[in-house]
Every structure is written in C-alpha cells, then in structure tokens.
Amino acid sequence: MNSRQKTVTILMADDDEEDSLLVREALIESQLPIELYIVSNGEELMDYLYNRGRYTDNSRAPRPGLILLDLNMPKKNGLETLQDIKTDPQLRQIPVVILTTSSTEEDIYTTYNLGANSFIIKPETYASLIEVINTLGKYWFEIVELPL
C-alpha cells in the first residue's frame, strides 16, 4: 500500500463462519494493513453501520472503507441490505463488493442495479481466495481513491 493509506477497515457480512475465517486468514496472509470486522446477517450489518445495539462504541465499530456482502443470509439478506446502504445518503459512498456463492445472472444484474461496486463469486480454493483478497486490497486501497 502506498503512504497515503493507513489501516483500512473492511466490514464483512456473511453467515458462514468458515468463509469468514478463510477471508480473515487470507487477509493475514496478504499482509495488507486491513482490520476485518465480521457480522453474520444484514440486520447486524445495519446495526454496525448505524452504531446501534452492541455497536454503539465507535472505536469497536469504525466506519468501513469497504463492505464485503454475502447475498444469502438470514434475517435480512444481502439484496435488502445493499438496497438499504445505497439509498442512505450517509452510507451510499461506502463501496460494497458482493462476495457470494451465487452465480445467477439475475443476482448479478440486480446487485449492480442496486449500486454494488463489484460482484465476486467465492473462489473454491484457499489459494484462489488469497489471490482474490490480494487483488481486492490492491485495487480498493492502493489504486482507487476512497472518500474519507
């Protein structure tokens, strides 16, 4: 990462604990200066973003520079959550990358129409996941200028 960037917060919403653990391990292996926070559904993600419930302490729930969003989650799914984020003037500037097992054209078109910044199908191998995380980190935190 270049000198203009410091540690960046990624907020990941995924109900699959194994996928979350693999992403955390891939981030550690990538050696990118990223703090990963994980929530398990869309309701919890919105609580985090609005500093509600157990996320009232901003130091334990910093504003994310990027959201990784799974589509298939309980309580509030990824499509509903994406729509909530992208229609809120305070949140819509946060880039949202869909990271899901879905590969349906309908999901791809719907997420982009709702304002998703990228759509990534979860890699099947750990090595591929590390490559995806490295590419995400380089693109979003070295190449792109994010709003502060």
Can you describe what's shown?
By secondary structure, the protein is α/β, with parallel strands linked by helices. The protein has a single domain (8-137), classed as Rossmann fold (3-Layer(aba) Sandwich). It contains 5 helices and 5 strands. The protein has helices spanning 17-30, 42-49, 78-86, 105-114, 126-143, and strands at residues 8-13, 34-39, 66-69, 96-100, 118-121. The chain has a 5-stranded parallel sheet with strand order 2-1-3-4-5, sandwiched between helices. Strand 4 (96-100), helix 4 (105-114) and strand 5 form a beta-alpha-beta unit. Helix 1 crosses helix 5 and helix 2 packs parallel to helix 3. The longest helix is centred in the last third of the chain and has 18 residues, at 126-143. The model is unreliable at 1-5 (pLDDT under 50).
Summary keywords:
148 residues; 5 strands; 40% helix; 17% strand
Please name the CATH topology: Rossmann fold
Which CATH top level class fits? Alpha Beta
At CATH level 2, the architecture is 3-Layer(aba) Sandwich
Q: Total number of β-strand segments?
A: 5
* Average residue-wise pLDDT: 88
Main sheet attributes: strand count, strand direction, barrel closure: 5 strands, parallel
Our count of domains comes out at 1
